[in-house]
Amino acid sequence: MKVEILYEEDDFLIVNKPAGILSQKASANDLDISSLLNKNLRIDFLAPVHRLDRNTSGCIILAKKSKSANYLSEIIKNKELEKKYLLICKGSVKEEGIIDLPIRKIEHKNICQINSSGQPAQTLYTKIDTKSNISLVSATILTGRPHQVRIHFSHIGHPILGDKKYAKKPWSEVFSRQALHAYKIKFTHPMTKNTIDVSATIPEDLQELVKRYQLELHE
Known about the structure:
Blueprint: E1 4-8, E2 12-17, H1 33-38, E3 47-48, E4 57-63, H2 66-77, E5 82-90, E6 96-100, E7 103-106, E8 111-114, E9 122-131, E10 134-141, H3 148-155, E11 180-188, E12 195-199, H4 204-212
């Protein structure tokens, strides 16, 4: 499986992670994004500095040195990394809004819930199009909680199509995976002060889903 490299320099690279690939190994035999890349790149140190769920595609940053892993982690910790997602969900979403609901992860079940004892989580969103009670949405996460976009949209009554954890039938079965793609990453390079602004091509399966519902893809 070929992985598209969107940006690369000495300290880190940004790739378009395919759906079905883990961000980090859960067990020794798992295929993760670092292992997949290193079949060709042969980089001694290669570590993701944030995560995407296995069946979410799109932009992910991998550090090539321990020092860059540290400074990139600081950028994320300080909420200086802009991450945008494209999603297709049930229902007619409002034109724009913010979902501000705390998220608690139940570790042994690998599932999240909206709970007042959870961590603060905010998701900004803008509707791109709605057809046949299906919406195409751009979402920006202001926090990086597990399953954030998925649980937030499910909780407000707009579960993401194909989501096996947070959508009910028939919506969980209309697509082979959650219809979610991390399409854009933007941040200021801490060393050069240049703006790193990278976008990931929408994968073919999501493009087909957009066509199926005759949605218009524009932002």
